[in-house]
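Incident log, structure service

09:12 report received: a user says their structure output differs between two submissions of the same chain.
09:20 pulled the input from the user's history:
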Amino acid sequence: MKVTIDKFYTENYKTLVLAAKRRITQLKKNIEPESLVSSSYLYVVGKADTITEEEIPRLAFGFILLELIRTNSQTNLKERLNPVDLDFDISDTNNQSDQLVLKIDVSDFVNTLNRTDQIIFEVYFNKGKTTKRDLAEHFNIDPSSALIYINEIKEKFKKYVADKETI
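09:34 re-ran on a clean worker, output below:
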């Protein structure tokens, strides 16, 4: 059966890639169609002992569609894990001064907090423990309590920013 599958993919490779491109465009995904066809091939070869020759095209095209539609498919997981390219304009000096103002505001904000809130903000902001689970593990407290602390700090920061005048 593997010989038949290889023959089908060899003869219909361009058609499969075009079908994958069309579906990728329709669903607005950022996936290479060739990798999708390769995944389809591996899927069909894995089913080689349980399928007939007539089912090969249906499984090949069906796999491509299902991989793109299902949110928990391997292809969609890979798409979500791909790093996002960020472009920074380093010639913009105004942007650097905005970052400096933000750092000053954050340090001023920390000075307005009581000691407990300062510790929580330090762990949340500087150490990057931004989820309730991370914060709960760090302080060895209940996750619901950690969420309350996070929300309180966020509200205090929003109030602080709202009260400050723009420079």
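09:41 both user submissions now match this output. Likely a transient worker issue. Closing.
09:42 reviewer note: The CA atoms of residues 90 and 96 lie 9 Å apart. Residues 94-163 form a domain with the Arc Repressor Mutant, subunit A fold (CATH 1.10.10).
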